Amino acid sequence: MPELPETETMARDLHREIAGRVIQRVRVRRPDVLREIAAKRLSGRVRGATIQGAWRRAKLVVLDLSTGDRLVVQPRFTGALMLDRGTLPESERRFSTIAFALGPDLTLHYRDIRRLGTVSLMTPERWKEYESALGVEPLDPSFTVPYLSALVRDSSQAIKKLLMDQRRVAGIGNIYANEALWRARIDPSRTGRSLDGDESAELHAAIRDVLTEAIESRGTSFRDYRDPAGDRGGFLERLAVYGRGGERCRRCDARLVATHAIDGRSTVLCVRCQR
Predict the structure, then answer these.
(1) pLDDT for the residue numbered 242
(2) Sheet holding 70-74, edge to edge
């Protein structure tokens, strides 16, 4: 968390608000979030660069700079890119790790409460190398039912763990893996190769539907996620299983079961519905 819907929301908002802005100053308050570049070198490389656009890849927010470099932000658990026009609450600003001044009226903060996320500056060559290790995007046309069927057919891994492997499918994390598998009525602990063609098709539809709906709701604010304006996502009330262990299944009224046995992450399922 944030996953695909949350980082997609961040990227879309940022593209609308800061494309064309010039980075005038950089203040690095917590250099431990930086990867592949030191604080002083980061400031020197990006100062004076124009932000040409913002977009998402996997769970990353990418800012294209006029220099050819790319700022690559991986928010992980508590990170967020937040815009400050002088009204950002101090409760958010005090967790700013890096601040990019984009003019007298606007600052872009990378806020990270637990500082588990990362900020990198990559050359085009480094980005190409880094990006090549990421899997297919689940909302791209290339993510087809035959593609998913082939992906799971030879795997002995639990299907939930397989969906969260960023080298195979990029952008799905714990929240939306739980939700997609519930929608598809598939037990998260089943091996990939145990799924038949119909189940792969159901899962494919469930993945695309839940991600699309979550983007429309601007993501899920379960704990710390905020969009660039500081607002919460609206998908929380639509979660069917994630965070609802012990509550009633919205489909069959059985008691939902929560476990950490599958991959060490919280998995919530309906043992009556999901087979």
Answers:
(1) 96
(2) 34-35, 118-122, 70-74, 60-65, 51-57
